[in-house]
Design goal:
By secondary structure, the protein is an alpha+beta fold. The strands form five sheets. A three-stranded antiparallel β-sheet has the order 3-5-4. InterPro entries: PORR_domain (IPR021099), PORR_fam (IPR045040).
């Protein structure tokens, strides 16, 4: 349960000066309120950690400056609060500052932190799940289960992994030749660093394209990400593609290291499921039925979950909102009697409303009535 309804008294008004009036309000339940307080305390405690993420992004950029309008797209994935442009960016003047540019407000790096300028370490797994423990005759690259590559693609990845590591913080993209394997090595390292800062180790590819020029990424960045399945996984579900950091997930698709903010999201979903469970049990307490014509079909309690929600099953607390004796709403339908003098036709009778005299009949035959 997340929300609950309550009423508060209202002062008398000229239209209702004698009767008390109450106003319906909504508030958080004690469990949801305690969860919100814990989440607020966590955000205050990790403020320095979030500032370090922004500082690392500025250190990755070529000009040590990023537009705030671009950081807004990546902010939720990094775990930044919605008001980070006015609060977080101004609370750490020793790390960065906001400046005005011709393209708008931007965040500029103030100090370089050598401890933060360390790329993520690669996890090397030398086991190849072989029956006999012996050195391999041919070079192989370990991929996730169910992924098969063509021979020339696998040979390219083996050659790519044999290249020495390139630090994206100290090696600018201008020093490397475009469309070279070294430049692609650095671009993959940049994407890997950004994904490592996110809460769920994933983000949209469209969000990364906003920083293509700032981080020195290639124009065909999506093709580059798909070309390296040993590092990234691209999901095409939804309207926009998402990229995941493969090394942060296990074989079942679960995060190896969960962010503390994800714990509060799980607890919030537990409260939502608990509220649905209580409402389902409340519906099970009474017998439901559906009437079709003159026959009534009764439904057992075990089969009630298969029924769709109806107005009678849904209880939101507003049924008796206007049934109170203190309500000022009075229904007055008047004393008009409808249909007292109406003449109704019997079933099977023929009623003629429009008639006309037909003058085209032959003389002597008389006139007859023809219905329209």
């Amino acid at each position: 349960m997340i929300f609950e309804l309550f009423t508060i008294p209202m002062p008398p008004t000229p239209f209702n000066a004698t009767k008390p009036c109450f106003q319906l309000c909504v508030r958080l339940t004690p469990a949801a309120s305690a969860l919100a307080v814990r989440e607020s305390n966590l955000k205050s405690a990790i403020s320095v950690h979030l500032a370090s993420k922004l500082q690392k992004l500025l250190m990755l950029s070529s000009h040590r400056r990023l537009l705030l309008s671009k950081l807004v797209h990546l902010g939720p994935d990094l775990g930044l609060p919605p008001n980070f442009r006015s609060r977080l960016c101004n609370d750490h003047p020793e790390k960065f500052k906001t400046v005005n540019t011709s393209y708008g407000r931007a965040l500029e790096l103030v100090s370089w932190d050598q401890e933060l300028a360390q790329p993520l370490t690669f996890f090397k797994d030398d086991s190849h799940d072989l029956i006999v423990d012996r050195p391999l005759k041919f070079k192989r690259i370990k991929l996730r289960k169910g992924l098969n590559l063509k021979r020339f693609h696998e040979a390219f990845l083996i050659k790519f992994n044999e290249l020495p590591g390139i630090c994206p913080y100290t090696v600018p993209s201008e020093e490397l030749a475009k469309e070279s394997m070294e430049a692609e090595k650095r671009a993959c390292a940049v994407v890997r660093e950004v994904l490592g800062m996110t809460v769920e180790r994933r983000t949209l590819i469209d969000h990364l394209t906003h920083f293509r020029k700032d981080f020195g990424l290639p124009n065909k960045m999506r093709s580059m990400i798909i070309r390296h399945p040993e590092l990234f996984y691209v999901s095409v579900k939804g309207q926009r593609d998402s990229v995941f950091l493969v090394e942060s997930y296990n074989g079942k698709g679960e995060l190896l290291e969960r962010d503390p903010s994800l714990v509060f999201k799980d607890e919030l979903m537990m409260l939502v499921r608990e509220g649905k469970k209580l409402r389902r049990e409340k519906r099970k307490g009474r017998l439901s039925y559906s009437t079709i014509g003159e026959s009534t079909t009764y439904v057992a309690e075990d089969d009630e979950e298969q029924l769709s929600y109806t107005e009678e099953d849904y209880d939101d607390g507003f049924e008796n909102l206007f049934d109170s004796v203190d309500s000022d709403i009075e229904e007055d339908y008047g004393d008009a009697d409808y249909g007292e003098n109406d003449e109704h036709l019997e079933v099977g009778s023929r009623g003629e409303f429009w008639i006309a005299v037909c003058d085209s009949a032959p003389s002597g035959a008389g006139s007859h009535l023809e219905s329209w």
